[in-house]
Specification:
With 143 residues, this protein is of the alpha+beta class. Strands 1-2-4-5-6-3 form a six-stranded antiparallel beta sheet, with helices on one face.
């Protein structure tokens, strides 16, 4: 539904910090599903952990937040004049390690919108296995 070049129109993130590769589902104002292909070439694997690479949980949460950011910015008239800021993480749980070669499926549902603040329930999966979940709050501000 949305490839990387279009995602970069909505998010300010770039390599090595852009953590969403594709959007596969989007219901504006309600729900979004993104994909992050986890490669052994990710720079964080050099130190987390040598000989036993695991994607840091905070980056799984960041991938969820970026996916939510695409949905949020998609609802803005002129996304190039705005930026989205992460405000809070609640109820975060890490349930299973994510390794090179895994494909993260990032599912976010809108809990509440009170413009410019939005709250999301996020879940991350590898296959059918839930690897993380959290509630995320963000705000959209002028650049």
């Amino acid at each position: 539904m949305m490839e990387i070049n279009e995602i970069m129109r909505y998010l300010p993130h770039r390599y090595p910090f852009l953590l969403v590769d594709r959007i596969v589902e989007m219901e504006p104002g309600k729900r979004i599903v993104g994909i992050k292909n986890v490669s052994s070439n990710e720079p964080f694997f050099q130190g987390h952990f040598p000989g036993h690479p695991i994607m840091p949980g905070v980056l799984i949460i960041e991938a969820m937040a970026q996916t939510a950011g695409v949905l949020s910015m998609h609802m803005v008239e002129d996304p190039s004049s705005k930026v989205i800021y992460f405000m809070s993480i609640d109820k975060a749980k890490f349930r299973h390690p994510v390794s090179p070669g895994d494909q993260l499926r990032l599912e976010l549902d809108v809990i509440k919108i009170r413009v410019p603040i939005m709250k999301f329930a996020g879940k991350a999966f590898v296959g059918d296995k839930k690897v993380a979940d959290a509630e995320l709050t963000a705000t959209i501000v002028d650049r």
